[in-house]
Amino acid sequence: MTDILIRAVPGAIVDEIDRQARALGISRTAFLRRRLDREFRPVGGVSTADLVRLAELIRDFGTPDITDEDPELVDGSLP
């Protein structure tokens, strides 16, 4: 692993990092590592199957008779 040095972090920010780390019962380093991991974790790509499913879900999205409230569809069933 690589070490990262961040200079001139304002004291109020360091205090808040420490407060949140304490609340979780972990060190400042562990807290920052978690936050960086969450922020920069590679996101999985969108598959063709994902796009096909989306297309199926929104195929009638712009159709007025579908987008207007239909009492028959209130229960969530599809025609």
Describe the 3D structure:
It is built from 4 helices and no strands. It is an all-alpha fold. It has a domain at 11-40. Helix 1 (11-24) packs across helix 2 (28-40). The radius of gyration is 24 Å and the shape is elongated. InterPro entries: Arc_rbn_hlx_hlx. One of its GO terms (biological process) is regulation of DNA-templated transcription. It comes from Nocardia flavorosea.
Which helices and strands, and how do they pair?
Elements lengths: L10 H14 L3 H13 L7 H11 L5 H4 L12
The Rg value, from CA coordinates, equals 24 Å
> What is the 3D form?
elongated
Distance between the termini: 55 Å
The percent range for helix content is 40-55%
Order of helices and strands: HHHH
Number of strands: 0
The overall pLDDT average reads: 85
- Binned strand content: under 5%
